[in-house]
Design goal:
Multidrug-efflux Transporter 1 Regulator Bmrr, Chain A, 3 helices, eight-stranded antiparallel beta sheet, single chain, alpha+beta, 27% helix
Length: 165
């Protein structure tokens, strides 16, 4: 019985993408056009969750076209405070920007991108993704900027980008 449960859990883990590798590549990006909310202060899961779902609603309602994005300006995990932008990366700016939202442009350029295709329940831990990206950069004698961009493309597709200096 125990082996049947174990086999079923391993099957579920595989089905959700838990065994899929992190694909790390070098890419060139245009400037990022971002619309959403900037947040700086103490880490507050409830406030961040609210901003995340507000941004998600902007896409699902059709108010904005693009993908959900979180930009970490202070990506060090053990800090007491954070500095992030939560919103939508848009291909083109809308003619009229919703009044409650902020527009930011983030300079593009060469990026190292980690592509993760797995459900959020089984995605690799962030430190493993960071290690993969840093190793990729080191092998190519590249230095990464500290800004981290998380593109939530679908329920099971996440791209994490770091700009190359």
């Amino acid at each position: 019985m125990l082996s049947a449960i174990t086999f079923a859990l391993i099957g579920l883990y595989a089905y959700l993408g838990g065994f899929r590798p992190i694909e790390v590549t070098l890419a060139e990006r245009d400037d990022y056009q971002l619309i959403g909310h900037y947040y700086a202060g103490e880490y507050d899961g409830d406030s961040l969750r609210t901003l995340f779902f507000e941004a998600k609603d902007l896409i699902s309602s059709g108010e904005l076209e693009g993908n959900l994005i979180i930009v970490h300006y202070s990506p060090v995990a053990d800090q007491d405070s954070i500095s992030i932008f939560v919103g939508v990366a848009v291909p083109d700016l809308p003619e009229v920007l919703p009044t409650h939202l902020e527009h930011r442009t983030l300079k593009g350029g060469k990026v190292i991108r980690a592509e993760i295709t797995a459900h959020s329940f089984v995605r690799p831990l962030r430190n493993k993704v960071d290690e993969s990206m840093e190793a990729f950069a080191m092998e190519r004698n590249m230095k990464l900027r500290s800004v981290v961009l998380e593109h939530y493309l679908s329920e099971d597709e996440l791209h994490i980008e770091r700009l190359v200096e």
